[in-house]
Amino acid sequence: MFKPVHFVAAARLTLLVGSLTVAVLTLGPFQGAEQILGLSDKAAHAIAFGGLLAVSFLAFPRMRRNDLMIAALVLGAAVEVAQIIAHRDGNIPDWLADATGILTVYGAGMIETVRKMAREQGDLTFAQIAAMDRRRGRRRQATAFEPAAMEVSMKETGAVVSFAERAAHRFPAR
User: Fold this and answer.
1) pLDDT one-digit tens code per residue, 18-48
2) pTM for the complete prediction?
3) How do residues 55-66 score in pLDDT, each as one tens digit?
4) Can you tell me the distance from the alpha carbon of 163 to that of 174, in angstroms, rounded to the nearest whole number?
């Protein structure tokens, strides 16, 4: 029987094959191949990188979507730099087309997040929802160290105390 982990494994395999396909098409001698499908260069970039991001959402369900989006944007920029190195036409408008596809898929994912919030916590403010988020670590209060009272009494008595003993009194073990 199929389980969610089977979809994750299939998505990871699809992401690997898709990434290799995009790398070959963008770096190989296939300049203009997107016209066979009736696409412009910019539309092909947007579809390719938007598709890679959509599959990466399935392939890495425990990673934050923001991190996956940033990784896809960096990958798009790296492809453009690699095209320049490979004596191809790497340029900023191509990267902006990559970003358009990536942001389109990311925006669709955020719409679903807002829909879920509206269903489950519709009467709360965004600040209240963020405060309830289990993924955010609770901050510990800063510990202020005060001079140990024992140091003052040692000075009054004239006892010679080593540095280690003074430090042990000032910073006790938790």
Assistant:
1) 999 988 888 877 777 777 888 888 898 999 9
2) 0.68
3) 999 999 999 999
4) 19
